[in-house]
Each structure stands twice: as C-alpha cells, then as structure tokens.
Amino acid sequence: xxxxxxxxxxxxxxxxxxxxxxxxxVLLGVFxxxxxxxxxxxxxxxxVFLKIEPDSRASGMGNAGVALADNASAMFxxxxxxxxxxxxxxxxxxxAWLPEFNADLFYEYLIAKHHIPGxxxxxxxxxxxxxxxxxxxxxxxxxxGTFRSYDLATGISYGTKVSERFGIGTSVRFIYSNLAxxxxxxxxxxxxxxxxxxxxxxxxRSRKFGMGETMKGQLSFGFNLANMGPKIQYSDNAQxxxxxxxxxxxxxxxxxxxxxxxxxxxxxFNKDLIHxxxxxxxxxxxxxxxxxxxxxxxxIKVRTNALADDEAQFETLSIIDQLTIGTGVEYxxxxxxxxxxxxxxxxxxxxxxxxxxxxxxVRVNIIGIDFSYIYAEQNSPLANTMRFSMLVNFEx
Length: 396
Fold this sequence. Notes:
The chain is mostly beta strands. The protein has helices spanning about 10-20, 25-35, 55-60, 75, 290-295; strands at about 90-95, 105-115, 120-135, 145-160, 165-180, 185, 190, 195-205, 210, 215-230, 245-255, 260-270, 275, 285, 300-305, 315, 325-335, 335-345, 355-365, 365-375, 385-395. The protein contains five helices and 21 strands. The strands form four sheets. The chain has a 14-stranded antiparallel beta barrel. The chain has a two-stranded antiparallel sheet with strand order 6-7.
C-alpha cells in the first residue's frame, strides 16, 4: 500500500492561483479531477473531460452503457458495440456543465458512424468542454490579457465481429487541452497540453432466449480499456500528468415482454488505472499507462483529513472501494418512447459522488431525442446537470 498525493497538476494550478492568475473555471476543472468532498485522493490525472459520460440515454441510467452500446455513442462506452451495428447514424449532445457554479461552462459531443459491409463499422467523434474566458495577471497583479480555456478531443473508432456473438473495437483520439496559454509562472511559460490515446474493447451478446410464453431475454457483457496514452505537459519543464486511463466493464439484461414492451437493466463498474510511485526518490510520480494498467490493482492508503499527518487520518481503500458503480433501467414502448432511471455510487473516500439519474427519450421516424437529469444534493457540483441529445438514424 502507499499514500497518494494530489498530483502535480493540482500543485501547478495552485501555483498559478497564488501568482494572481484568475482561473476560476480551470480550478473548477481541477475540482472535477480531484474531488475534495472527503479530502481524500486516490490519484490525479489531467484532461478528465475524457471521462464525462456524453450521451443522454446512458446518462439517464446511472451512467451505465458498456454492455448496451447499441448506437453511435458506443464510441465512448464501448467501441466493440459498433461491431453489431449497421447503417449510418449521427448524434450530438449538449450540456451546460456544472450549473451549480453558474460559470457558463458547457460540453458538446458530436459523433457519426457508418457500416461498410465486409469491413465493419467506422465512426468519428469530437468532444469539446468550454471552461470560460479569463483575465490573466502576472506576479505583480498586472493584466496580461484575456484568454479562453477549453479541452478538445477528436478521433476515430472501429468495431468488427470476430464471431457471431463477440465483437472487438478500438478508438484512437488526439487531445488538445488549452487551459491557461501564454501565462508566466516563475520562469516557466504555460502552453496547451497535447497528447494521444487509444481504447481496446470487447462485447459479447447472447442469442435471445425464451422466458415464458411470450417473453424473451438477452444478456450482454462488455469491457472498455480506455484512454491509454502518454502523459500531458502544460509547461516547458519536465513536469507532466497522466491522462485518465480507466477500465469500464459491466452487463446488460434485456427483457422483451411482447412486441411492444421491453425493459433493460444495465450495470457498469469503472476503475481508474492510475498509479503513483516514488521510484528512486521520495517524490511521487505517475507510472506510464502501460505500467499503471497492472500496478494500479492494489490497495491504497488515502488521507481523510488534508490538515493532519497522524496515522488515524488515513483510510485504506481496497480494489472494490476504488470502483465506481452505475446501474439503471430503461423501459421502451413500441420503440417509440422510453423512460429511464438509475443510480451512481462512489466510495466516500474516493470522491464521494452519489446521485440519482432520470431520463426519457422519443423516436419519430429517423429522429431521436434523449434527455437526462442528475438529482443530487445541492452541495454537489453535478446537481441539476441536464444533457440533451439528438440522434439521426439514416437507415430508417
């Protein structure tokens, strides 16, 4: 076991703040990366916008979709889901992000997929998180001009079947994180961070089986090892931060009661694959992703009181404690109207996010509209977050 610090990115932006740079939205972004509700840290990463669940459908089911993955949003949840899809589809999601802070942040997600017979299904995606416009100041508190902060990722995905019931998939993406460009901190000038990442995913989907006179069932299992890639830097020095490599796995169980009514139950488990070690020095450094996907599977000792150093202020998190769990249900009537509900849970010493989700969807001809809502305690930064998605299925 080992004690975890908050990571170099948090220290870096705290330095920016103490030097007078006004970065309210950036600090909110760091808040997402390093939850402080329990004053405990499992590990920090940069560009955490890559983990924001994009589509309103799965977001309405407790942020669970790794084994569902049956539309273009599979590019986020599980690109292996593209293997079971045909036709052409495009979708867009919009969300006012962290509305409780009233900081005019917003999130956009644009995707499209197309099936090529004999080859598989290809997709493209674009993610954009706007973090506001700010006024920079130097160490003497003199204005240095305004700048905009944002995170952007774009890439392609592919899925194909290796057997009738099992598909594999991958995504690759380019990451551009423009948080505080051109600011001077000490002797270092800040710059936009650049990195790349890729996913490896798999999905098994059973045949439909009888569950009574008219009822049928189908079971699916999926996994997605996402955001594997090199660390990202925001200045010219050697300091760098890991990107949020994580493993998502889970199941979906669909019950078709008759030709008009169906109910699907989904559950996702998610673990960050980030590991800090001291190496040959006493300073914590993040392992490279190809090492962290193995070294992160161990118990962790975390600080529960940031102001205390005695042993009583530490808790040990097992591997189970480090998992987040999302579960939910979706009811469809005649493939025209859907109702959704779910619950998301995170250990109190591992971020402490706990909230209910609600959602609904309609399908009219080639157009689909989905909506989701997070119901959480009012002191939660995610409280009252709404997502709206529109999908166009050109196959119909």
